[in-house]
Write a structure and sequence with these properties.
The protein is of the alpha+beta class. Helix content is 17%, strand content 40%. The protein has two domains: 142 residues, Lipocalin; 106 residues, no CATH class. α2 packs across α5. It is globular, with a radius of gyration of 22 Å.
């Protein structure tokens, strides 16, 4: 399960880091559509609609949970951010709303699996005494609204049925260059396959500690990385985690992880520090391939990960690498060491 709730200052820093350090990428078309909150039980944002505005702009419409119907915040012109002044590669869309009691600032970024991640910073203006706060989550493609056809005078209006929505597996397949899935699995399975498996933690609670004769890097007692007897690697990893300000650990499979990557403020760092042990990867060349033994993720002729019959983890790994433009996998304590992390373009 993916969750991430931070303070307003962290959310603001996340936006700045995304622009400077390389967030998920895509052109404006990747943001367009009807998006539903992956958490249907949320008390906040329920859905977001992004449409074109002019040649290169977008409009954003937000709906939050209300009773008996969702509250419509209205449609606002979005602001797009690229990775450079001369780039058409849109990485972030933001929009500001005033639903009556607060100023709401929403930030949208592409996420693996053909999804969007969102952050909302709420500044109360109603003198209620409530603390300003920030929330975040994940948006998945929703069904397009029905199209109302214009009927002749006196005729009964006809509502065209909504076209079948593209499944998350199909969208993920498109992202990694795969053919469409032969059949759509259950909704829960699709969401699990396309979502990221991340653990958000407070860096102030992360430290190295001895455990069971070995060494662990823990989050307030919860082990994030187990190093066995390699004490040097444990402390080197703690220095790496601190240098990059990592506050989120993600894996391809929560039970039998092969790929491990870390985020800082919701994004993966781009700049590197001296003395790292890294291998180069071409994210545009990454594909999922079928073998006699199952599935693997390849970078051209090179095999990066092997997953046996776990195709969903292979799809997620390829989608993460391509979506975040991960071009370096780095290691602490050798390529077989416990600590691994990625850097982006």
């Amino acid at each position: 399960m993916f969750w991430n709730v931070s303070k307003r200052a962290l959310a603001a820093a996340s936006l700045a880091m995304a622009v400077m350090s390389g967030a998920a990428f895509g052109d404006v078309s990747d943001f367009l559509g009807n998006w539903d909150n992956a958490d249907s039980d949320t008390n906040g944002i329920m859905r977001v609609v992004v449409t074109r505005a002019g040649t290169n702009g977008v409009s954003v419409q937000v709906f939050s949970r209300c009773h008996p119907t969702d509250c419509d915040w209205g449609k606002r012109l979005g602001h797009t951010y690229s990775d450079a002044p001369d780039s058409n590669d849109t990485r972030i869309v933001t929009a500001d709303f005033n639903p009556g009691f607060a100023q709401e600032h929403i930030t949208l970024r592409p996420a693996p699996g053909g999804a969007l991640s969102f952050e909302v910073m709420t500044d109360f203006t109603d003198n209620s005494g409530h603390k300003d706060y920030a929330t975040s989550g994940r948006l998945v493609p929703g069904a397009p609204p029905p199209v109302v056809l214009v009927a002749a005078p006196g005729a009964v209006p006809v509502v065209a049925p909504a076209p079948p929505s593209e499944s998350l597996v199909d969208r993920l397949g498109a992202a990694v260059g795969l053919d469409s899935a032969p059949s759509a699995p259950a909704t829960a399975a699709v969401a699990d396959a396309a979502g990221e498996n991340c653990h958000h933690y407070n860096p102030a609670n992360g430290f190295v500690t001895p455990s069971g004769g070995g060494w662990n890097f823990v989050d307030f007692g919860f082990p994030l990385v187990k190093f066995g007897a390699d004490r040097v690697a444990a402390y080197q990893s703690a220095q790496i985690i601190s240098a990059y300000h990592f506050d989120e650990q993600c894996v391809d499979n929560r039970y039998h992880p092969q790929m491990m990557y870390w985020k800082s403020g919701g994004v993966i760092p781009r700049d590197s520090i001296a003395g790292q042990d890294c291998i180069d990867v071409d994210p545009k060349a990454v594909v999922v391939a079928s073998t006699t033994d199952g599935w693997k993720v390849e970078d051209g002729p090179r095999t990066l990960f092997e997953y046996a019959n776990d195709k969903s983890s292979a799809d997620l790994t390829a989608s993460v690498i391509r979506t975040y433009r991960l071009n370096r996998e780095c290691f602490v304590g050798g390529h077989d060491g416990a600590m691994r992390y990625w850097l982006s373009q």
